[in-house]
Design brief:
With 235 residues, the protein is an alpha/beta fold. It is built from 7 helices and 15 strands. It is elongated, with a radius of gyration of 21 Å.
């Protein structure tokens, strides 16, 4: 279920945001639930980790910016969208890595575009592969995959928690992952760009300190793909 927190001390504004979310997301996903808060203090007392936070910047006592800083301490990857009537706070929003910044009065088309972009980003975090063996099937979230290794027709998926083996073609996996942050750097390896620490002419060094071979003929394309990933990385 997609959980969205709306923290706004103005009742009319808060209800308006809730209505827009339920209108625009209700048409594409019924599993969305909104939670309303009238202050940053009330929000921070909630035990839930929300997928998206809509925070009014100007609130009594604890501002939206200060609330966001507290959220970041416990939910580093949360999507935070600020709403405010003043442009002066835009640079403060950058300090907490806000996903977006919406000026009041809120333009509904702009709101819809930002909301859909946020939901699209979240959906990527929950994409997965199914590793099928003779006796069982395993669901592997793409975000947990560090790299994939091929040995003949056997695939080894190196994740953050285990190595999962099954029979499959690495070329088919390459096609399945073509729209995600993966790159086939060698005939035997596909790496998740999110876990790349550095690289040279021979190896890609991953964040878990493992080294994966990179073929010379793929080096230039890999460098471009990695730079593009870094430039467009949102969370």
């Amino acid at each position: 279920m997609l959980k969205i927190a709306i923290c706004e001390d103005d009742n009319i504004q808060r209800k308006s945001i809730v209505n827009m979310i339920e209108t625009y997301l209700g048409a594409i996903d019924k599993r969305c639930k909104t939670f309303e808060f009238i202050s940053g203090e009330e929000l921070l007392l909630s035990i839930d980790n929300f997928d998206i936070y809509f925070l009014d910047i100007q609130m009594d006592n604890l501002s939206g910016i200060d609330t966001a800083k507290r959220i970041r301490l416990i939910h580093e990857k949360a999507i935070i969208i600020f709403t405010t009537g003043f442009k002066d706070y835009v640079f403060d929003a950058f300090d907490v890595n806000a996903f977006h910044y919406i000026l009041k009065p809120i333009d509904e088309n702009k709101f819809k575009d930002i909301l859909y972009s946020a939901v699209k980003l979240i959906s990527k975090k929950y994409k997965f592969l199914i590793a099928k063996t003779i006796n069982s099937s395993a669901k592997i979230l793409l975000k947990d995959i560090i790299y994939i290794e091929s040995d003949q027709r056997k695939i080894r998926v190196h994740t953050t928690y285990d190595i999962i083996e099954y029979y499959y073609k690495i070329s088919d996996l390459e096609n399945e992952l073509s729209e995600d942050n993966f790159f086939r750097c060698h005939k035997c390896y596909i790496i998740n760009l999110e876990y790349v620490q550095s690289f040279d002419n021979t190896f890609i060094i991953l964040k878990n300190f493992e080294k994966v071979y990179i073929s010379r003929k793929r080096l230039s394309d890999f460098s471009k793909a990695f730079m593009y990933y870094l430039k467009n990385e949102e969370f």
